[in-house]
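Q: I'm writing a short explainer about Cardiolipin synthase for a general audience and would like to include a description of its predicted shape. Could you first generate the structure from this sequence?
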Amino acid sequence: MARQPSGAHTSAVWTLPNIISMVRLAGVPLFLWLVIGPEADVWALVVLMVSGFSDWLDGYLARKLDQTSKLGEILDPVADRLYILAAVVGLLYRDIIPWWVAIILPARDAFLWCLVPFLRTRGYSALPVHYLGKAATAALLYAFPLLFLGDGEGPVATLSLVFGWAFAIWGMGLYWWAGLLYAWQVRLLMADRGRRAPSLSEP
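A: Of course. Here's the predicted structure. Afterward I'll give you a sentence or two in plain language.
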């Protein structure tokens, strides 16, 4: 989830929080390979858990070390979305989810990408992540491991599948609700003609 800036933003690239975010991004292809190659679900879940912990860690360090940056604000949501996309691709490849689920989630991100040119006109690269978006991402990141665990037999697999779909349905609903709120924020931003992103050189 995206870190919340508490102070001034920097243009620095090689900060510790940004390096952690880059390492998390590098784990996306590894996660996808584990899921669709050897189908090593346990190791794939370990990668997902490490990713989740690093997601919290980079935000904590950014605030603690006062190293919030524009790049960090972009890397965090990009990493979240790539993990979601990789999990969706893996679940579809394994026939665990139907095709419409594999369309509805990336469709929301495609919808938001269409709003980026409007943000650019005001100097913004992305909108700050709000708590509804965080809740949606968290629900989906709970759902995907459970759905993978549900791809088997026995009571544990059955329970995992039930809870996985419960989180997935809530997650998909919140994901789109958050997307519509982002679109509303963009509309308000465009209506306020005097509002622009602050310069990095500003205090």
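A: For your explainer, you could say: The two ends are 26 Å apart (CA to CA).
Q: Perfect, that's easy to follow.
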